[in-house]
Amino acid sequence: MNEIKVKLDLLVESGIIDSTDRETIEAWLELIVKRELFDLTKVDTFVTHSAMVLSREKSNQEIAELDAVIFDSVEEKVRNEANEIIAEMKSIHAIKDFEEGYILIHLCNLLSK
């Protein structure tokens, strides 16, 4: 996961996230890593999208919520696991409702094998 550390360094150095955001992303990643159910090749994308969520939050930028129908094709076991993770993520850092669907779909992607 050294590549992830490098990516986080670059995101901080470029001003996309700050050190507090980095700590949040690292804590979120710990929730995923401890489950050992994820595809490591997809973690990089999840980090990028997490950084964008936190960046939009700081700039008060809103995005359209995802249509719930998008989750219909996601395996129920994966969706349930993703919902458990997002609940834990929200205990670390509040996630706006309009961002939750995007994080959820990225978690489902990450957990899909």
SSE layout and pairing:
Elements: H1 2-13, H2 19-33, H3 43-58, H4 76-92, H5 97-111
Helix pairs in contact: 1-3, 2-3, 2-4, 3-5, 4-5
Give the termini distance in whole angstroms.
19 Å
How much strand content do the residues show? under 5%
What percentage of residues falls in helices of 4 or more residues? Answer: 55-70%
Major sheet description: none
Structural class of the helices, strands and pairings? mainly alpha
Shape descriptor: globular
What is the ordering of alpha helices and beta strands? HHHHH
Number of DSSP E strands: 0
Specify the number of helices.
5
Radius of gyration: 14 Å
Question: Which descriptors apply to this entry?
Answer:
66% helix; 5 helices; mainly alpha; 113 residues; single chain; globular
